[in-house]
């Protein structure tokens, strides 16, 4: 379980939401001198590609370009390690919520799901609940706790096995059979 920094092969990724979030942070950061730990455009765009930053700023302001950006990002985003895990384990959230996005990152503007809980075939039979925690105790917002929203799951006992017969039960049934 945890943060794999990889998208599931079938999950959506709204890269434009992430781009808009980073742009908002950059605008807010202009007046700050400290690094607040959140991503900024220059921290997510490799140095050799930073000449594209003005283009990315334009994309963030256009719905049409955002839609094209999302389409392109769907094919680019890393997905490999989740594909390998899903061959042997079940993604608990997707198992219970096949049509929900369940986005977890970034917490302040969820754009993709990169946090998972996986279960083996035996354990997934006992899966009772799995969801993304948007708020915690006292309605504390998840975006204030981390840069990712947490995923939680509950597993039950599943099928209760038959209780084996006690020695007293065997003695009673044996005495009933052995009467002359």
Write up what this structure looks like:
There is one protein chain. The strands form three sheets. The chain has a two-stranded antiparallel ribbon. A two-stranded antiparallel sheet has the order 2-4. The protein has a two-stranded antiparallel ribbon with strand order 5-6. By secondary structure, the protein is of the alpha+beta class. The protein has one domain. The model has no long low-confidence stretch (mean pLDDT 80). The protein contains nine helices and six strands, in the order E-H-H-H-H-H-E-H-E-E-H-E-H-E-H.
Write the layout of secondary structure elements.
Elements: E1 2-3, H1 15-29, H2 41-44, H3 53-60, H4 63-76, H5 80-86, E2 90-91, H6 92-96, E3 115-116, E4 118-119, H7 121-124, E5 127-133, H8 142-145, E6 150-155, H9 167-177
Antiparallel strand pairs: 1-3, 2-4, 5-6
Helix pairs in contact: 1-3
